[in-house]
Design a protein that fits this description.
Strand content: 15-25%
Oligomer: single chain
Number of strands: 6
Radius of gyration: 26 Å
Distance between the termini: 80 Å
Helix content: 25-40%
Largest sheet: 4 strands, mixed
Shape: elongated
Length: 146
């Protein structure tokens, strides 16, 4: 009498649950990577209804709530630039700039008085005096989307 086993082991593997898991991990990392802020200086930008974004890396100037100026800060250990030294630092940054768009992005905290923004514009006008009309830099104010 031959006894047959009722329980047979299936040698196939279902990869459906594995692909679902990989897909969920991909979505998780895509969402969290967009939430990482590239700004090294903690600022609260003013709100704007415009949704246009600059696509290329520009020269950046930050003004924080303590009225410290930062020109092209590199990471969280950025050192503030005193207003008196702002012109030579901006001239050095402009000389290194190879971007054809010639924009300087101003990221000022919304609590910064307008006098400090105008002072930065005065320094930018001094920098632009060294260039012909078609090569002058334009100031772009960065805002936060609503």
């Amino acid at each position: 009498m031959a006894i047959k086993m009722q329980n047979r082991i299936d040698a196939t593997f279902s990869a459906t649950s594995m692909s679902d898991l990989v897909f969920l991990l991909l979505i998780f990392f895509m969402l969290t990577s967009t939430m990482i802020s590239p700004n090294a200086i903690n600022l609260v930008l003013p709100k704007s209804t415009a949704d246009k974004q600059l696509s290329t890396r520009q020269l950046e100037v930050y003004i924080d709530e303590d009225l410290n100026y930062f020109v092209n800060p590199e990471g969280s250990n950025a050192q503030p630039t005193p207003y008196e030294e702002l012109y030579p630092v901006m001239m050095a940054a402009v000389e290194k700039d190879a971007n054809p768009q010639k924009n300087i992005v101003l990221r000022a905290d919304k609590s910064v008085p307008i006098e400090n923004v105008v002072a930065l514009m005065d320094v930018l006008n001094q920098v632009n005096d060294n260039f012909p009309e078609e090569e002058r830099y334009k100031l772009v104010l960065a805002t936060e989307a609503k």
